[in-house]
Sequence to fold (206 residues):
Amino acid sequence: MAGATVVAVFGPLVGISPAWIAVGIGGLLVGLTVDASQWQGLGGHLLAEALPGGRARLRRIACHEAGHLLLAREHELPVQRVLVGTRACLQAGVRSNGATEFEIPTSVRMSLEDLRRWSRVLQAGIAAESLVYGAARGGADDRALLGRLWGLSGHDVDTAQREQRRARREVEQWLRKQQPELEQLADQLLSTASSQSPESFQPPER
Fold:
């Protein structure tokens, strides 16, 4: 809203009618409200990605998804597609800023070893983003899905939390060793995302 404040202060000095300023600010507030309630803020993300600096924002998303993709390859978990950016996600019918879509497990109650694999893969996006940028902005959906998988597993909470912490440490250590490949894959995802439609986007091969 800083921009609106600047317009309100300096607009009359350059000949902009206060009435038009009020209409503009009112429209902005309505737009933000609708975006928050109907689109979970995705409209704002879409705009931010289109503005100068948007490519850096998309690159951060690509880094997050690259983390998932690298760990999925390492654990031989099939990936259906990767989406980078709000526009690509919305065009594909996904309400998110980025997504790595996996094949759904055939068994709801997975073995402990399978749960460990999924714990590494689902936490890899957060770990990759934290490694490259110092902190993660995304990952809420990853944490929610991981929590559901462990909740359905029949294991107690202490075991679930202990295994997830262990998996996070393992992922962080592994990604530090693979950081050049991680960043190269992030750039590849970003480049591919800008040149392909979501319908034709497939995870790049090794």
